[in-house]
Amino acid sequence: MDLKGICVLSVILVVALIATTEGKTPPTKCQCKIAPRERKNCGHPGISAADCRKAGCCFNASVPGVPWCFTAKPKKVKKVCPADPRIRVNCGYPGITAKECTSRKCCFRAHPAGVPWCFYHRTVEEAC
Fold it and tell me: How many domains does the chain have?
């Protein structure tokens, strides 16, 4: 492989590494509600709270002898049918029946006029 090819591969590798380490969203309080003895280490010794959260992990230094920077629980999400008809995203076609719509695993509400009656669920995070 020539020098140009190595440089291109190096740039791609650096960009991929940056993309996987930046932009992680900090976990929610619900995701960090973990019994101290169940915590799984997520950072190096001495990691700051800010660096821990930047890595997408939870930080709590109130309990000695357990990891302070630890892996968050996965978000609990559920599918709901949107109550606001203005945010419905069409999942069917004009004249679709409720049975056909639900067989597509979509929501069906035959009101109001002028909006989709067969529409996609929305995914929302469940409360703690």
Answer: 2
Q: Give domain status of residue 5, yes or no.
A: no
Token pair for 7: 């440089």
Q: How far is CA 50 from CA 22, 46, 63, in A?
A: 13, 12, 18
User: Block means of pLDDT (10 residues each) for the chain, length 128 residues?
Assistant: 51 42 75 95 94 95 95 92 95 95 96 95 86
Domain residue limits at 112: 77-125
Residue 10 is assigned to a structural domain of this protein:
no
Q: Are residues 70 and 82 in the same domain?
A: no
Q: Measured at the alpha carbon of residue 22, what is the angle toward residues 123 and 62, in degrees to the nearest 5?
A: 80
Same domain? 53 vs 68: yes
Element holding 122 (H helix, E strand)? strand 122-125
- The number of beta carbons lying within 10 Å of the beta carbon of residue 99 is 8
For tokens 């004009």, name the residue.
94
Pair 59, 53: CB distance under 8 Å: yes
The whole model's pTM is what?
Answer: 0.53
